[in-house]
Amino acid sequence: MSTQEFQNGELRDGFHFRGGHPALDLVATVTGRLKPAQRELLAGPDDLARWLVAAGFAGSPLAATPGDLERARALREAIHAIVDARLAGGEGTPADIDQINAAAAGTPAIPQIGEDGRVRLQGGASALLATLAGEAALLLGGDQASRIRRCEADGCAMLFLDTSRGGERRWCSMKRCGNKAKVAEFRKRRQGVGA
């Protein structure tokens, strides 16, 4: 796989995009959720601005404020809490739902067709976050909500939208976690044959 494919695929500007939906990719801006020490990838406003570009919400660099960063983190944690609760058989708390609804109630970015014929979102970080919150509300309150999964690989907490026909996808990425699991299973079977 070329560096260009990697940058346009699952890893862009240091952020993971394996969720199949921007709301789930936002949750991935905290790594190591299953470990004692987690890593915050949105450490400052500039990181949020970079993520918005890498996620495709902005076509060029933009400015983000500390307030934008705080709103992005609150939105991220509300999404995570609702998905986590649902995967455990429950529902999200009213506070988490209110957090997403409040963020989605902001003025969204304006879609515009660019000279290249592709849509671009026009607006600052606040508008882009309102658009992202709206997409999160549509995902979590829509038919696809039942297709949100957590990666089954040991130590991986990535969330993803299972768009497979049978709804039986197990890993956030076949290239990463799926391949590791298959190699481990192959080694296990091979050791069992020689024993």
Characterise this structure.
The N and C termini lie far apart (36 Å). The protein is mostly helical. Mean pLDDT is 88; it is low at 1-7. Helix 4 packs across helix 5 (94-104). The strands form four sheets. It has a two-stranded antiparallel sheet with strand order 1-2. The protein contains seven helices and eight strands. The chain has one domain: Jann2411-like domain (Jann2411-like fold, Orthogonal Bundle).
SS-based class: mainly alpha
Helix content percent band: 40-55%
Number of structural units classed as domains: 1
Low-confidence residue ranges: 1-7
Count of DSSP H/I helices: 7
* Sheet with the most strands, sense and barrel status: 2 strands, antiparallel
* SSE pattern: HEEHEEHHHEEHEEH
Can I get a quick summary?
Helices cover 47% and strands 11% of the residues. It has 195 residues and is mainly alpha-helical. The termini are far apart.
